Amino acid sequence: MASSALSFRSINYPVLDEQERLQRIVQFARVIATRRSVREFSAEPVPFELIDQAIAIANTAPSGANKQPWRFVVVENVELKRRLRIAAEKEEWEFYHNRATPEWLADILPLGTSWQKPYMESAPYLIIVFRQDYELRLGPDGTPCQHSNYQVNESVGIAVGFLLAALHVAGLATLVHTPSPMGFLVKELGRPANERPFAIIPVGYPAENAQAPDLVKKSLEDVRLRL
Ligand code: IYR
Protein backbone atom coordinates (compact mmCIF):
# COMPACT_ATOMS: atom_id res chain seq x y z
CA MET A 1 0.00 0.00 0.00
CA ALA A 2 1.20 3.53 -0.75
CA SER A 3 2.23 5.39 2.38
CA SER A 4 0.70 8.82 2.85
CA ALA A 5 2.48 11.42 4.92
CA LEU A 6 -0.39 13.53 6.22
CA SER A 7 0.79 16.81 7.60
CA PHE A 8 -1.00 20.14 8.05
CA ARG A 9 0.21 23.63 8.79
CA SER A 10 -1.41 26.99 9.43
CA ILE A 11 -2.51 29.08 6.49
CA ASN A 12 -1.28 32.62 6.08
CA TYR A 13 -4.22 34.85 5.13
CA PRO A 14 -4.12 38.63 5.50
CA VAL A 15 -6.44 40.05 8.15
CA LEU A 16 -7.75 43.34 6.80
CA ASP A 17 -10.49 45.73 7.68
CA GLU A 18 -13.52 45.82 5.43
CA GLN A 19 -12.51 49.05 3.72
CA GLU A 20 -9.11 47.74 2.77
CA ARG A 21 -10.60 44.51 1.39
CA LEU A 22 -12.89 46.55 -0.81
CA GLN A 23 -10.08 48.88 -1.91
CA ARG A 24 -7.92 45.94 -2.87
CA ILE A 25 -10.60 44.18 -4.87
CA VAL A 26 -11.68 47.36 -6.64
CA GLN A 27 -8.04 48.09 -7.49
CA PHE A 28 -7.61 44.59 -8.92
CA ALA A 29 -10.86 44.98 -10.88
CA ARG A 30 -9.47 48.18 -12.44
CA VAL A 31 -6.20 46.51 -13.37
CA ILE A 32 -7.65 43.33 -14.83
CA ALA A 33 -10.40 45.16 -16.74
CA THR A 34 -7.72 46.68 -18.99
CA ARG A 35 -6.51 43.27 -20.16
CA ARG A 36 -7.13 42.58 -23.85
CA SER A 37 -6.11 39.78 -26.15
CA VAL A 38 -3.21 41.35 -28.05
CA ARG A 39 -2.07 40.30 -31.52
CA GLU A 40 0.49 43.05 -32.23
CA PHE A 41 3.70 42.98 -30.21
CA SER A 42 6.62 45.37 -29.75
CA ALA A 43 10.14 44.14 -30.52
CA GLU A 44 11.26 45.51 -27.12
CA PRO A 45 12.96 42.72 -25.18
CA VAL A 46 11.25 41.43 -22.04
CA PRO A 47 13.35 40.29 -19.05
CA PHE A 48 13.09 36.53 -18.70
CA GLU A 49 12.71 37.06 -14.94
CA LEU A 50 9.16 38.39 -15.55
CA ILE A 51 8.24 35.22 -17.44
CA ASP A 52 9.73 33.05 -14.71
CA GLN A 53 7.84 34.94 -11.98
CA ALA A 54 4.57 34.57 -13.89
CA ILE A 55 5.10 30.84 -14.40
CA ALA A 56 5.95 30.49 -10.70
CA ILE A 57 2.58 32.17 -9.94
CA ALA A 58 0.76 29.82 -12.35
CA ASN A 59 2.47 26.93 -10.61
CA THR A 60 0.74 27.89 -7.32
CA ALA A 61 -2.71 27.27 -8.86
CA PRO A 62 -4.93 24.63 -7.29
CA SER A 63 -5.06 21.37 -9.25
CA GLY A 64 -6.77 17.99 -9.03
CA ALA A 65 -5.11 16.06 -6.20
CA ASN A 66 -2.37 18.72 -6.29
CA LYS A 67 -0.80 16.92 -9.26
CA GLN A 68 0.10 20.19 -11.07
CA PRO A 69 -0.45 18.49 -14.43
CA TRP A 70 1.19 21.18 -16.53
CA ARG A 71 4.39 22.09 -18.34
CA PHE A 72 5.26 25.58 -19.59
CA VAL A 73 7.70 25.54 -22.50
CA VAL A 74 9.09 29.02 -23.14
CA VAL A 75 10.27 29.56 -26.71
CA GLU A 76 12.40 32.62 -27.50
CA ASN A 77 14.66 31.14 -30.19
CA VAL A 78 13.98 33.06 -33.39
CA GLU A 79 14.39 30.06 -35.69
CA LEU A 80 12.11 27.89 -33.56
CA LYS A 81 9.44 30.62 -33.37
CA ARG A 82 9.60 30.81 -37.17
CA ARG A 83 9.12 27.05 -37.54
CA LEU A 84 6.17 27.15 -35.11
CA ARG A 85 4.61 30.05 -37.02
CA ILE A 86 4.85 28.15 -40.31
CA ALA A 87 3.31 25.02 -38.75
CA ALA A 88 0.54 27.00 -37.01
CA GLU A 89 -0.30 28.91 -40.19
CA LYS A 90 -0.60 25.65 -42.11
CA GLU A 91 -3.30 24.46 -39.68
CA GLU A 92 -4.95 27.86 -39.57
CA TRP A 93 -5.12 28.08 -43.37
CA GLU A 94 -7.01 24.78 -43.33
CA PHE A 95 -9.25 26.06 -40.55
CA TYR A 96 -10.22 29.27 -42.31
CA HIS A 97 -10.64 27.64 -45.74
CA ASN A 98 -12.00 24.15 -44.97
CA ARG A 99 -12.51 23.19 -41.32
CA ALA A 100 -14.48 26.02 -39.73
CA THR A 101 -18.26 25.98 -39.99
CA PRO A 102 -19.91 29.10 -41.45
CA GLU A 103 -21.32 29.80 -37.96
CA TRP A 104 -17.85 29.68 -36.42
CA LEU A 105 -16.40 31.99 -39.06
CA ALA A 106 -19.28 34.43 -38.50
CA ASP A 107 -18.68 34.33 -34.73
CA ILE A 108 -14.99 35.26 -35.03
CA LEU A 109 -15.49 37.83 -37.79
CA PRO A 110 -15.63 40.76 -35.27
CA LEU A 111 -12.17 39.74 -34.00
CA GLY A 112 -10.59 40.50 -37.38
CA THR A 113 -8.41 37.37 -37.31
CA SER A 114 -7.08 35.44 -40.31
CA TRP A 115 -4.91 32.39 -40.97
CA GLN A 116 -1.83 34.61 -40.79
CA LYS A 117 -0.08 34.63 -37.41
CA PRO A 118 2.77 37.18 -37.42
CA TYR A 119 2.67 37.34 -33.61
CA MET A 120 4.10 33.82 -33.50
CA GLU A 121 7.38 35.48 -34.54
CA SER A 122 7.07 39.05 -33.32
CA ALA A 123 6.24 38.22 -29.68
CA PRO A 124 9.51 37.93 -27.72
CA TYR A 125 8.25 34.76 -26.06
CA LEU A 126 5.81 31.98 -26.85
CA ILE A 127 4.76 30.13 -23.73
CA ILE A 128 3.52 26.76 -24.92
CA VAL A 129 1.36 25.19 -22.24
CA PHE A 130 1.11 21.40 -22.16
CA ARG A 131 -1.33 19.31 -20.14
CA GLN A 132 -0.03 16.10 -18.62
CA ASP A 133 -2.71 13.43 -18.80
CA TYR A 134 -0.65 11.14 -16.62
CA GLU A 135 2.76 11.09 -15.00
CA LEU A 136 5.54 8.66 -15.80
CA ARG A 137 7.54 7.64 -12.74
CA LEU A 138 10.06 4.88 -12.29
CA GLY A 139 8.69 1.97 -10.28
CA PRO A 140 10.71 0.09 -7.62
CA ASP A 141 12.05 -2.27 -10.29
CA GLY A 142 13.18 0.65 -12.43
CA THR A 143 10.47 0.32 -15.08
CA PRO A 144 8.40 3.43 -15.95
CA CYS A 145 4.95 3.38 -14.41
CA GLN A 146 1.91 5.52 -15.33
CA HIS A 147 0.36 7.56 -12.48
CA SER A 148 -3.04 9.20 -12.94
CA ASN A 149 -3.72 12.92 -12.99
CA TYR A 150 -7.22 14.26 -12.34
CA GLN A 151 -9.38 17.09 -13.72
CA VAL A 152 -6.50 17.97 -15.98
CA ASN A 153 -8.33 20.38 -18.28
CA GLU A 154 -9.81 22.31 -15.37
CA SER A 155 -6.49 22.43 -13.52
CA VAL A 156 -4.50 23.68 -16.49
CA GLY A 157 -7.22 26.23 -17.32
CA ILE A 158 -7.00 27.66 -13.81
CA ALA A 159 -3.19 27.80 -13.99
CA VAL A 160 -3.37 29.61 -17.33
CA GLY A 161 -5.79 32.11 -15.74
CA PHE A 162 -3.23 32.81 -13.02
CA LEU A 163 -0.52 33.15 -15.68
CA LEU A 164 -2.48 35.65 -17.78
CA ALA A 165 -3.37 37.75 -14.74
CA ALA A 166 0.24 37.75 -13.49
CA LEU A 167 1.65 38.81 -16.87
CA HIS A 168 -0.97 41.54 -17.17
CA VAL A 169 -0.16 42.94 -13.74
CA ALA A 170 3.45 43.28 -14.99
CA GLY A 171 2.25 45.26 -18.03
CA LEU A 172 2.79 42.37 -20.44
CA ALA A 173 0.38 41.59 -23.25
CA THR A 174 -0.82 38.07 -23.98
CA LEU A 175 -3.01 36.10 -26.31
CA VAL A 176 -4.42 32.62 -25.86
CA HIS A 177 -3.92 31.00 -29.22
CA THR A 178 -5.19 27.50 -29.93
CA PRO A 179 -4.63 26.43 -33.51
CA SER A 180 -6.38 23.15 -34.09
CA PRO A 181 -4.99 20.54 -34.20
CA MET A 182 -1.86 21.36 -32.19
CA GLY A 183 -0.02 18.07 -32.69
CA PHE A 184 2.84 19.87 -34.45
CA LEU A 185 3.90 21.32 -31.07
CA VAL A 186 4.60 17.87 -29.62
CA LYS A 187 6.87 17.06 -32.55
CA GLU A 188 8.62 20.44 -32.87
CA LEU A 189 9.25 20.73 -29.13
CA GLY A 190 10.09 17.05 -28.57
CA ARG A 191 7.57 16.54 -25.79
CA PRO A 192 6.98 13.09 -24.25
CA ALA A 193 3.87 10.94 -24.83
CA ASN A 194 2.14 12.06 -21.60
CA GLU A 195 2.05 15.76 -22.66
CA ARG A 196 -0.60 17.25 -24.94
CA PRO A 197 -0.68 20.88 -26.11
CA PHE A 198 -3.18 23.08 -24.26
CA ALA A 199 -2.49 26.56 -25.68
CA ILE A 200 0.14 28.84 -27.20
CA ILE A 201 0.53 32.09 -25.27
CA PRO A 202 2.53 34.79 -27.08
CA VAL A 203 3.91 37.30 -24.55
CA GLY A 204 5.49 40.72 -24.96
CA TYR A 205 4.86 44.43 -24.64
CA PRO A 206 2.04 45.58 -26.89
CA ALA A 207 3.11 47.33 -30.11
CA GLU A 208 2.92 51.11 -29.84
CA ASN A 209 -0.26 51.36 -31.89
CA ALA A 210 -1.71 47.99 -30.98
CA GLN A 211 -5.47 47.84 -31.27
CA ALA A 212 -8.08 45.39 -30.09
CA PRO A 213 -11.64 44.92 -31.30
CA ASP A 214 -14.24 47.00 -29.53
CA LEU A 215 -15.91 44.09 -27.73
CA VAL A 216 -18.65 44.39 -25.14
CA LYS A 217 -18.64 42.10 -22.12
CA LYS A 218 -21.84 40.64 -20.69
CA SER A 219 -23.14 42.62 -17.74
CA LEU A 220 -22.78 41.36 -14.19
CA GLU A 221 -26.54 40.81 -14.12
CA ASP A 222 -26.21 38.52 -17.14
CA VAL A 223 -23.59 36.29 -15.56
CA ARG A 224 -24.28 36.41 -11.82
CA LEU A 225 -27.26 34.77 -10.18
CA ARG A 226 -27.79 35.52 -6.49
CA LEU A 227 -29.95 33.01 -4.62
N1 IYR B 1 -7.81 29.52 -34.10
C1 IYR B 1 -8.16 30.55 -35.10
C2 IYR B 1 -9.62 30.92 -35.07
C3 IYR B 1 -10.12 31.49 -33.83
C4 IYR B 1 -10.95 30.74 -33.02
C5 IYR B 1 -11.47 31.27 -31.87
I1 IYR B 1 -12.69 30.16 -30.72
C6 IYR B 1 -11.17 32.59 -31.51
O1 IYR B 1 -11.68 33.12 -30.33
C7 IYR B 1 -10.37 33.36 -32.32
C8 IYR B 1 -9.83 32.79 -33.48
C9 IYR B 1 -7.26 31.77 -34.94
O2 IYR B 1 -6.53 31.86 -33.94
O3 IYR B 1 -7.29 32.65 -35.78
UniProtKB/TrEMBL annotation:
Residues 32-205 form the Nitroreductase domain. This is Nitroreductase. PANTHER family: IODOTYROSINE DEIODINASE 1, NADPH NITROREDUCTASE. The keyword Cell wall biogenesis/degradation does not apply. The keyword Kinase does not apply. Signal peptide: none annotated. It comes from Acidipila rosea. GO terms for molecular function: oxidoreductase activity.
